[in-house]
From TrEMBL:
InterPro entries: SWEET, SWEET_rpt. One of its GO terms (cellular component) is plasma membrane. The keyword Membrane applies. This is Sugar transporter SWEET1. Keywords: Cell membrane, Golgi apparatus, Membrane, Repeat, Sugar transport, Transmembrane, Transmembrane helix, Transport. It comes from the Eukaryota. It is found in: Cell membrane; Golgi apparatus membrane. The chain crosses the membrane at residues 40-63, 70-88, 100-121, 133-153, 159-179. Belongs to the SWEET sugar transporter family. It is a multi-pass membrane protein.
Length: 189
C-alpha cells in the first residue's frame, strides 16, 4: 500500500523510510544465516524479502525530494552489513562459532527493525494521529513475526524465536495506537 501511495501521489510524504531500510538489511543478514545453516526456508523467504525491500528503497529514493539523507542512511547500513560480512567470513573460521555470531547479529537487526516504526511514538501521541504509521505494514509485521516465532520454536532456534517476539509486541502497540487514534481523527502535524 505504501508503494501504491508513492506511485499515486508521486511523493513520500507520511511514509517512513527507516523501517524498510532496516528490513532490507535484516533480510540480507538472515539470508546469510540461512545459507550458513543451509535452511532453504530462510534462504527463499529472505531472497524475496531483500529483493522487494531493495525495490521499495529505489522507488522511495526516486520520489524523495531530499535524496542525500536517504542515500546516506542506505550507505551507512550497507557499510555495516559489509563490515559484518567481512567479520563473519574473514575473522571467524569455525562454522559453529560463525553461525552463533551471525545469529546474534541477525537478532539485533531484527529487534531494531521491529522497533523502528515506534521511533515516532511521541509524535503520534502528541498529535493524536497515526498518519505516519502504515496499518497494512502493522498487520504484515504481526503475521510475519508470529510466523517466525513459531518457526523458531519448531526448530528450537533461539536466534529466530527470541528477536521476533518484539515484533509481536510492537505490532500490538501499533494496533492499540490505531484503535486509540483512528484515522478519521487525524490532525496534520
Amino acid at each position: 500500500s505504501d508503494l501504491r501511495q508513492m506511485f499515486a501521489t508521486k511523493s513520500v510524504e507520511n511514509i517512513q523510510f527507516l523501517p524498510f531500510l532496516t528490513t532490507d538489511v535484516n533480510n540480507l543478514s538472515w539470508l546469510g544465516y540461512g545459507v550458513l545453516k543451509q535452511d532453504w526456508t530462510l534462504i527463499a523467504v529472505n531472497t524475496v524479502g531483500a529483493t522487494l525491500q531493495t525495490l521499495y528503497i529505489l522507488v522511495y529514493l526516486y520520489y524523495s525530494p531530499a535524496k542525500r539523507p536517504v542515500l546516506l542512511r542506505s550507505l551507512l547500513l550497507l557499510a555495516v552489513l559489509a563490515a559484518g560480512y567481512g567479520y563473519f567470513t574473514l575473522l571467524i573460521e569455525d562454522a559453529r562459532t560463525r553461525l552463533a555470531h551471525l545469529g546474534l547479529f541477525c537478532s539485533i537487526f531484527t529487534i531494531s527493525m521491529y522497533l523502528s516504526p515506534l521511533a515516532d511514538l511521541a509524535k503520534i501521541v502528541r498529535s493524536k494521529s497515526t498518519r505516519c504509521l502504515s496499518f497494512p505494514l502493522t498487520v504484515t509485521t504481526f503475521l510475519a513475526s508470529t510466523s517466525w516465532t513459531l518457526y523458531g520454536l519448531q526448530l528450537r532456534d533461539p536466534y529466530i524465536t527470541v528477536p521476533n517476539v518484539p515484533g509481536i509486541v510492537t505490532s500490538v502497540v501499533r494496533f492499540w495506537l490505531f484503535w486509540r487514534y483512528p484515522p478519521g481523527q487525524d490532525k496534520p502535524y
